[in-house]
Please model this.
Amino acid sequence: MSTPQNCEAASDSEMKARAQDLIANITSVLGRISKASSPTRPVRLVAVSKLKPSSDILALYNAREQTKQEPHFGENYVQELMEKAKELPQEINWHFIGGLQTDKCKKVAAIPNLYAVHSVDSEKKANKLSQTRLSFPDFPKLRVFVQVNTSGEESKSGVEPAETLALAKHIQEKCPGLQLVGLMTIGAIARSKDAENPNEDFLTLKKIRDEIWEPLGCPGPEDLELSMGMSEDYEQAIELGATTVRVGSTIFGLRPKKADAAAKSSAEESKA
Model:
């Protein structure tokens, strides 16, 4: 029969093995990012830990000197982000990449080490984020990306491509608590899985960026970042201009099934 000491030792052993797997995974991703990137255009990796335990993030955070990975982590659910931000080191740069409801903007913007929100798709949400951020005078401006629905799918969030410039200008001119840093898209799953053809969603986002940087008063197109690319397509996204990629399952492994994720999201809503 196992003693408590043996159980603890087994747990420690499992934790170490898990940490080694995570480090190997992120090291592989970083190597592929480096290979796909241009020396003059660095690419930021956001490790998306949706529905994974805080211990996974902490393992990678503690190994950052070994992996050379800056501590950028992303979450899709507001409640999960809030809980992890409280538990984990303040030096972590958090990215919120999920669909953002207007009534959750205050909670998100109140997180002190929130680095960026990638999913701003309305003036109302931008206003709420800005107002909340300004209520914390010690906080820096909150970086935001305008999410664009490049695929035209009803299931996807984001502004229509033709509305991108208007929302970006609103953020610049009417939201003093925010800093517009770029554009984001998720895109169609089928296009992400088609490795033989250039992803139309990535090409569309880059085209929009190239059309609006000058009206926005940016010194050059590269001053507007492009957040695009996930586990299945981040290398092609980089080749087509991405400056931030959001990689989850390739680093952390498969997530719970859709039904479990939906149950978690429902539970989150009831807590809010």
User: Anything to note?
Assistant: The radius of gyration is 19 Å.
